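Many introductory courses stop at the sequence. We go one step further.
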Amino acid sequence: MVTLRVTDPDGATDSCRALVTVRDEEPPVIVCGPPGIPHNLLWSDITVTENCGGFPTLEASAFECFQIKKSGKRIEQRCSAVFHPVAAFLGRVSFLRRPHVGTRVRTALTARDDAGNESSKSCEAVVTKK
């Protein structure tokens, strides 16, 4: 319950109590890490933000590792990646073995907030020299 107060230009006031319901209908936002993963690192961070100050969850459902040749042909690579929830709003994709320079790592992600809103996104990064 909140109390609403009004005052007119002559100084007369009035008030009443009202029930205010706030509905969160906006899904959380997934923010991918940088587009390049330096070869000497073994992780890439992904964050999720929530508009109502809650604690959204972040889950990864699939990983793909591949290279794109100059001809445009996609070459599948062995994928040794694991997703770790670091905090409610942060996830980390860790590599069990260092991927080759030029390998693209794509992660399918889903975020859910306390109100049940959901969003999905695919994040991709390329392994760089440094």
